[in-house]
Amino acid sequence: MQPVSLTISEGIAHLRIDNPPVNALNQPLRAGLRDAALRIAGMPDVQKVVLSCAGRTFVAGADIRELGAPLEPYLPDVLDLIAGSSVPWIAALHGTVLGGGLELAMACHARIAAPGTRLGLPEVSLGIIPGSGGTVRLPRLVPMSDAIAMVTGGKPVSAEAALAMGLIDRIASGDLQAEAQDMPAPAAPLLDRPVREAGAIDWHAQEQTLRRKSRGAEAPLEALAALRDSAELPARDAMARERERFLRLSVSDQSRALRHVFFAERDAGRSLRDIEAAPADLARVGVIGGGTMGAGIAAALLIAGSSVRLIERDAQAADMAQTRVADLLAASHKRGLLRDLSALERLTTGSDYAALADCPLVIEAVFEDMEVKRQVFTRLDAVMPADAVLATNTSYLDVDTLALTTRDPSRVLGLHFFSPAHVMKLLEVVRGAHTGPRALATAGALARHLRKTAVVAGVCDGFIGNRIMNAYRTDCEFMLEEGALPEQIDRAMEGFGFAMGIYAVQDMSGLDIAWAARKARAATRPADERYAHIADRLCEAGRLGRKAGRGWYDYATGTAQPDPQVAQIIAEESARAGRTRREFSDAQIMDRILSVMQAEGRTILAEGVADSAEDIDVVMVTGYGFPRHKGGPMFLAG
Ligand code: NAD
User: Fold this and answer.
1) H-type helices in 192-310, by residue range?
2) CA of residue 342 relative to chain centroid, distance
3) What residues form the membrane-spanning segments (predicted)?
4) pLDDT-derived band of residue 34, with 50, 70 and 90 as boundaries?
């Protein structure tokens, strides 16, 4: 099948792209577009071209597999042909108009979009920048400040926002094709127009802010530089510079790493999609426990459109949970992630398990205590219909043991959310020894419903993510014993590109859950195993993290400050372990952390806890702040 078809009717050329699944601009499509543009140029009767796409979306981007090895014809040349056409091209847009797709739309002479269309230049998320005139055409259509936000941030905008800023000329009110046909033709060629409102930009300040935000990722800064070229150079020169940057970035280590994560995320949880069993219906979901996690999980479900029955210990705790969920929804609304607060009407809270009887899926998020969870599962077993799926959000506890407290352990699995659960994209799906296909199919459906990335993990202490984190956290404590300080380790991790260092993270999430896990393991820990007591001593001193006002840092001033008491405890523990304290460079710290992550990752793979090295990278990047542009620990191991 040809990816481009051309029909002429009453002086209008209708050019239709049909290149499933998302009309990606691969080589055959580029060649088809070029040939069509050349044919149209030779047709004196054609007065207008309407370019549209079949299927669920207009062109949603380039073909990522061709990155780094582009094939002729090159997109900039095809777009030049279109932009230079003596008759106007009207782009009729729908779906997600992304990357090369938006560059194609901008090369046309006018744009009309169906309601609900989203438009964006997400190239920076793959470590590149637009390479076919995007940074030159965009700021000639929209104010430079909007262009900067779109190109350096990579986030798509709505059709309404696109119309307001000038990226499109109209939103269709009825038939997209018919309205496209009636669009007026614009006067001056786009590249002859001046860049909009570039004088208002403080380029230096923009760069400083972006450098801080991008934590070592180079593409956003290159994108900004390309836009600056666009403001300061003749359009043709800016185009040439943009192409140079694009070609250089497309073969960079960061782009390779980001593409690795892109494909790893796409493939994660694939095994859940292939399961034949019917998933549980997600219209009504039960949640038990409405603390930090339960409230977040409830909010995630409500935002996705489910009704939620939340069970707490008693009426007072249920009221508190209700408030917590309402606060999370209000915050999401404020951030523009939720249209209105009516979602809250789908929440009921209480303490009677009978309310759960019509929920095909229940997710437990009570205290991290096997006995408490066991009691919850025993009660669930008594009230829930036989085919209901029962999930635990435990961080460390044995899902198999918990499953055996029910009559049918095949319906039990772990659904390990990350905090805040309505924001974080990762969902570790813990497949127990007894977990059956319906439970797994439900996990897959839930991940899609909540727009989360599911990674399947086997049962072990901490599954994939917490197990790797435990391994490097332990080694970081050994480094403390040997001479490092928490603030130095955090600085090294942040310098590497982590969103936060391990100690700032621990303070934020609280030191108590890991402390409880260590205590539970203490009885079985071999006597000759190296063990640092520093974290235990902090917990014993009530330093449980931010919520206690102090943890690895002191928060009396509102921000994290290194604390002499912590340094004192560390020094005492160095002495107790008989270690002579020495200097660590940031590079030495990161070498240790990465090698421990990689060693634990290899063990996890050998044990079958993770299905692939790619899955491990997805967990670390999406759940643990590992810098995406470094690709993940297993990618770096080569
Ligand atoms: P939390 O202490 O904030 O909340 C627990 C809630 O459970 C409380 O509101 C409590 O009243 C309620 N509860 C206790 N026993 C109950 C019972 N029998 N019936 C009904 N409700 C009951 O704890 P949290 O941080 O939300 O953690 C909950 C679970 O999620 C734990 O298993 C934890 O390991 C896991 N988890 C936590 C995080 C995190 O970052 N906090 C991340 C992933 C998983």
Assistant:
1) 203-214, 219-232, 235-250, 253-267, 270-273, 292-304
2) 26
3) none
4) very high
Q: Is 317 in the pocket of ligand 1 (CB under 6 A)?
A: yes
609: phi then psi, degrees, rounded to nearest 5 = -70, -35
Name which residue sits closest to atom 9 of ligand 1, judged by CA: 291
- State the DSSP code for 194: P
User: Is the Cβ–Cβ distance between 19 and 13 less than 8 Å?
Assistant: no
505 in Cβ contact with 466 (< 8 Å): no
In this structure, which residue's CA is closest to atom 39 in ligand 1? 419
**Residue 416's closest CA among 397, 433, 435?**
397
* Closest listed residue to residue 444, CA positions, set 607, 221, 271: 271
Q: Domains in the chain and their CATH numbers?
A: 4-251 (3.90.226.10), 272-457 (3.40.50.720), 470-608 (1.10.1040.50)
pLDDT digits over 223-263, tens only? 999 999 999 999 999 999 999 999 999 999 999 999 999 99
Q: Specify the pLDDT at position 187.
A: 65
Nearest-atom number in ligand 1 for the CA of 290 is 9
Residues 190, 196: Cα–Cα separation, whole Å: 12
Taking residues 482-507, report their average pLDDT.
96
Tell me: the pLDDT tens digits for 580-620? Answer: 999 999 999 999 999 999 999 999 999 999 999 999 999 99
The minimum-distance atom of ligand 1 relative to the CA of 396 is: 34
Nearest protein Cα to ligand 1, atom 15 = 366
pLDDT in tens, 319-360: 999 999 999 999 999 998 888 899 999 999 999 999 999 999
Atom 12 (ligand 1): residue with closest C-alpha? Answer: 289
Pairs from 473-476 (Cβ < 8 Å, separation ≥ 24): 473/502, 473/506, 473/514, 474/532, 475/592, 475/593, 475/596, 476/502, 476/503, 476/593
**Whether 583 is catalytic:** no
Q: Are 346 and 303 in contact (CB under 8 A)?
A: no
pLDDT tens digit sequence for 166-205: 999 999 999 999 999 999 877 678 999 999 998 889 999 9
Count Cβ atoms within 10 A of the Cβ of residue 334 and give its class: 0-12 exposed, 13-18 middle, 19 or more buried: exposed
Q: In this structure, are strands 426-431 and 412-417 parallel, antiparallel, or unpaired?
A: antiparallel
Confidence of residue 67 (pLDDT cuts 50, 70, 90): confident
Q: What share of the chain has pLDDT > 90, as a percent?
A: 92
394 CB near ligand 1 (under 6 Å)? yes
Q: What percent of the chain has pLDDT over 70?
A: 100
Query: What is the four-CA torsion angle of 392, 395, 400, 401, rounded to 10 degrees?
Result: -90
Q: 10, 66, 103, 482: which one is catalytic?
A: 103
* Distance between Cα 181 and ligand 1 center (Å): 58
Q: Is 614 one of the catalytic residues?
A: no
The single-letter DSSP state of residue 25 is B
- Nearest by Cα to 533 from 506, 560, 515: 515
Among the listed ranges 119-133, 210-224, 461-475, 518-532, which one has the minimum average pLDDT value?
Answer: 518-532
